[in-house]
Amino acid sequence: MARALIHMPPSARRGEVIEIRALIGHPMETGYRVGADGKPLPRDIIRRFTCRYNGEQVFAGELHQAISANPYIAFFTVATESGTLEFSWEGDNGFAHTEKMNLTVSAA
Fold first, then answer.
1. What is the SS3 assignment for 50?
2. Domain Sulphur oxidation protein SoxZ: where (predicted)?
3. Contact in structure between 15 and 107 (CB atoms under 8 Å)
């Protein structure tokens, strides 16, 4: 099972721009390297990252073989209302991981 680290403020003022940083532990094997036996190592990458804020997608990205192991993604969004941010990673070999974080929004 993957281990995700998410850094974001637990609270913000309505309309405030917040930074969100997400890192997930994953080897990201490209499929181009060969193992000790001389055979190609099978590809195993995270292909997609999505962040939803109260069910609405606010950020998404497609990842490819050129991304390093343990991919780190940083982005910004606007705090509009209190709720849940859901972070999802999908990849090869049926890999899927989801984390949720709460955000409390106060009046401006």
1. strand
2. 9-101
3. no
Q: Is residue 36 part of a domain?
A: no
- Is 35 inside a domain boundary? no
For residue 78, the enclosing domain spans: 4-29+41-106
Question: By the 8 A CB rule, do 50 and 72 touch?
Answer: no
86 lies in a domain? yes
Q: How many domains does the structure of the chain reveal?
A: 1
> Each residue's pLDDT tens digit in the chain (108 positions)?
679 999 999 999 999 999 999 999 998 999 899 999 999 999 999 999 999 999 999 999 999 988 889 999 999 999 999 999 999 999 999 999 999 999 999 986
What residues contact 15, with CB distance under 8 A and at least 6 apart? 78, 79, 80, 108
Q: Rounded to 5 degrees, what are φ and ψ at 42?
A: -65, 145
> Any idea which residue has 């991919």 for tokens?
71
Other beta carbons within 10 Å of 95: 16
Token representation of residue 58: 């606010």
Report the CATH number at residue 67: 2.60.40.10
